[in-house]
Amino acid sequence: MNATTNVSTATQSLSISQRMIAGSLALLLGLTLLVGTGFAGDFRLHNGAHDTRHAMGFPCH
Amino acid sequence: MIMIRNLFAAAIFAALAAGLLTAAIQHFRVTPLILHAETFEGEGGGHSHGEAAADHVDAAGTADHSHDAVALTAEDEAEEWAPADGFERTAYTTLATVLAAAGFALVIGAVSMFSGIPITFANGFLWGIAGFVAFSLAPAYGLAPELPGMPAADVLPRQIWWVGTALATGAAWLLLAKTRAGWAFAVAAALVVIPHIIGAPGAPDEPSAVPAHLATEFAAITLGTSLVFWLVLGTLFGKLNDVFARNRVAVPAGATA
């Protein structure tokens, strides 16, 4: 519980702009990774990630 | 800067652990079903392995083109790169699973930053459940986990429906996490239900050579594996956030935690 209190304090002490910058960077990189592994039509990406796409429930084929 | 670094470090380490665990489960329980299903691929008018190969088969469409799995596999290898079965294929699947895990971790990290709701050890499993429902269960409700060789609608409409459903379901979670007002429950319920009223692009009603028991086993195992993945990812992400935040608070204050 102590740890939770610390984190909440830490998160709330961050300025809005800091959170927006961190969030935007994370979102950009995260979506790039998801598109590359789960959605890209390029056959190299498709075939390399083929079993992962089926296993994670991404639409495939 | 430190907090950006902490967010990324927590996301990446949690994704690495959750992704490797998931890849191990996939290796032993999921991939064997995919490989088994691929031996039936092409027998029952199902989709062929790659789009380029499919074009080729359609264009060539001559009588001497046997549609058995062996010929199709050979064609694939001749026409487009694919990892070789065995170690190479396992390595690529492991890599792809870890990268997808990192993608999911960074996306929920971004949601946490934008919404101001921290991911902690205490609430990490709730983030995991939310991620599972938004990214696995809700899409699977319309687009059941699918084995190679099973009939399915075109990829693009399915991808659009998948993304829309994940976004709407995720938005419902976020709304309820921020407010429990009466209207919020109504809006959240609408967000969850509307994609299913619109309906996922349906599979053509054609026979599949993939045995039903393989397909049902695959659906159950992939959903179960996704649940494990999300619970581990959320909990670990939260734990690492706690650890990094404690260090960050402790160092400048000179406190001994």
TrEMBL record, chain A:
InterPro entries: CbtB_put. It comes from the Bacteria. This is Cobalt transporter. The lineage of its organism: Bacteria, Pseudomonadati, Pseudomonadota, Alphaproteobacteria, Hyphomicrobiales.
Automatic annotation (TrEMBL), chain B:
Keywords: Membrane, Transmembrane, Transmembrane helix. InterPro entries: CbtA_put. This is Cobalt transporter. NCBIfam families: CbtA. It comes from the Bacteria. The keyword Repeat does not apply. The lineage of its organism: Bacteria, Pseudomonadati, Pseudomonadota, Alphaproteobacteria, Hyphomicrobiales. It comes from Devosia epidermidihirudinis. The chain crosses the membrane at residues 91-113, 125-144, 159-176, 181-198, 218-238. Pfam families: CbtA.
